[in-house]
Amino acid sequence: MEKRKIIVGSRDSVLAVAQTKLVMEAIRRANPGIELELVTRKTTGDMILDKTLDKIGGKGLFVKELDQGLLAGEIDIAVHSLKDMPMEENPELPIAAFFMRGDPRDVLVMPAGQKDPGTLDGMDAIGTSSARRQLQIRDMYPEAGLKSIRGNIITRLDKLDRGEYSALVLAASGLMRAGLEDRISRYFSPEEMVPAAGQGILAVQARRDLDVSFLEAVNDRNTAFAAEAERSFVAALDGGCSSPIAAYATVDGEKLKLTGLYFNEDTKEHLVDSITGDRTEAKQLGQVLAVRMKGGLS
Ligand SMILES: NCc1[nH]cc(CCC(=O)O)c1CC(=O)O
């Protein structure tokens, strides 16, 4: 019998392709009747490397070119780091599956051959452009110096090893999926550093008209609930790209616990607070926590 063919789109970075292949493998295992073909695209976020993301402006810089491919019918599904996807979903391009979350934590990476000195307070150039990471590093190590960095993981590690940075903060899951786990010198717990909404989650986006029943086997329900809670929290806070914001949810049985970090632009203070409820209320939990924290009622 003729196999049904699905064209799978990915960014062309080492990490994006490794992540996409992981999802493709899982789809193949569950659907022997489906043939998959990988297509890669360079995205705006990969091409403009001399500006921080909040300065380039606009949303969805790592997904735009793939969205266009999906809408044009050149691609059937696209695999993305959920963290890189805009909070508002394009109704034509819904997320059809959330792939089982990887390690959600942020980690410290030292230049090749160097050991973690324990404190980061003596460092003068910790590489991260994320306002979320900067704020939480400053909380733990007020004396540490920060330096902005752009580029994909490989580019960032090259800059680190060439001596341009004292250390980097990166996502554990990205390093692991790119086969670079041995570069991790320290894990920050989700309490020390609240992860970004969606960190470690892969989302499979599909055209609205596509029959996506073949994706059921790669959708993890608890990951989907966590994603929904985290993203509704950020969306309710208007998730400006340059304001520090973090959201991390865990599911235990029927219960979902969501922790959020919110930065008040007026008082320049930040809060961390949590809410627990039924996992099926994920979206409302995110909204309730956001309203509570915005009102400063916590
Ligand atoms: N912002 C870039 C980006 N988008 C997704 C990941 C890693 C994978 C993930 O967080 O799910 C990374 C790199 C990083 O933050 O270290």
From TrEMBL:
In this chain, where does the modification S-(dipyrrolylmethanemethyl)cysteine occur?
Answer: C241
All copies of the Porphobilinogen deaminase C-terminal domain together span 225-294
Q: Which UniProt keywords apply?
A: Porphyrin biosynthesis, Transferase
InterPro entries (UniProt xref): HemC, Porphobilin_deaminase_cofac_BS, Porphobilin_deaminase_N, Porphobilinogen_deaminase_C, Porphobilinogen_deaminase_C_sf
Q: Which PROSITE patterns match?
A: PORPHOBILINOGEN_DEAM (PS00533)
Catalytic activity, as annotated: 4 porphobilinogen + H2O = hydroxymethylbilane + 4 NH4(+)
Q: Residue ranges of the Porphobilinogen deaminase N-terminal domain?
A: 6-209
Q: Per its record, how is this protein called by name?
A: Porphobilinogen deaminase
Q: Which organism is it from?
A: Anaerobium acetethylicum
